[in-house]
UniProtKB/TrEMBL annotation:
This is Fumarate reductase cytochrome b subunit. Heme b binds at H32, H83, H133, H172. NCBIfam families: PRK13553.1. The lineage of its organism: Bacteria, Pseudomonadati, Pseudomonadota, Gammaproteobacteria, Alteromonadales. It comes from Shewanella atlantica. Coiled coil: none annotated.
Length: 222
């Protein structure tokens, strides 16, 4: 009995940790995209945001501390690692599990199960692409700004990474927050769940549009 109770407690703790870490990462992602979208307001607006992120108001020369961005990148990478290590326990990694999942999806058309599959697929994509993005930002934080970011995105061809990464992270985040809300009782009936799905879709579309517009806004500065 004691062992069973310990296992249940551990499982509950891991489930909560996955939910909390996922929501934190989603909120950070959306905040990050809003800050980056300052380029839509002009070069001066993004320069000001970048300076604030580097705490330039605390430095005597006004140049700030770019290593703050590196610390943020390391913190996000660490949180992502924790999230992945917990989430991977629920993935159908074996061939037997994958076959069972395909059979279930072919016989039962369940919308939330399909969302979970998309979340798993986008999660794998994020796992492959996000480390590259964090390395590019964390290893050269002083380049963040209208000209430096534009040069990286368009002249160095990093847009080929950012485009699919944008779609992956937005789908993954929106689906994840939706599933966390469902899991912890935010939707008490089917109508509430349907409304939440619509909100999820709207959030995804809005932030994908913001992300694409921001990438294009860097083009004149390249």
């Amino acid at each position: 009995m004691a062992i069973t109770k310990t296992i249940k407690n551990c499982s509950g703790w891991l489930d909560m940790s996955q939910s909390v870490s996922g929501v934190i990462l989603a909120v950070f992602l959306w905040t990050h995209l809003i800050l980056v979208s300052s380029i839509l307001l002009g070069a001066d607006a993004m320069t000001w945001i970048a300076g604030m992120m580097e705490l330039n108001f605390l430095s005597a020369d006004g140049h700030g501390y770019p290593w703050v961005v590196t610390l943020i990148a390391i913190a996000i990478a660490s949180l992502v690692l924790v999230h992945v290590l917990i989430a991977v326990q629920k993935l159908p990694l074996s061939l037997r599990q994958q076959i069972a999942l395909r059979k279930q999806m072919s016989s039962i058309s369940h919308g939330d199960t399909k969302l979970w599959v998309w979340q798993a697929i986008t999660g794998v994509g994020i796992l492959l692409m996000l480390p590259v993005h964090l390395w590019l930002i964390g290893s050269a934080p002083e380049t963040i700004g209208p000209s430096g970011s534009a040069d990286r995105i368009w002249n160095d061809g990093v847009w080929m990474l950012y485009m699919p990464l944008l779609f992956c992270v937005e789908l993954h985040a929106a689906i994840g927050v939706y599933r966390v809300a469902i899991k912890w009782g935010a939707a008490r009936d089917l109508n509430s769940r349907a409304r939440m799905k619509k909100i999820k879709t709207i959030v995804s579309v809005v932030f994908v549009v913001i992300g694409l517009a921001s990438l294009l806004a860097f083009l004149p500065h390249a």
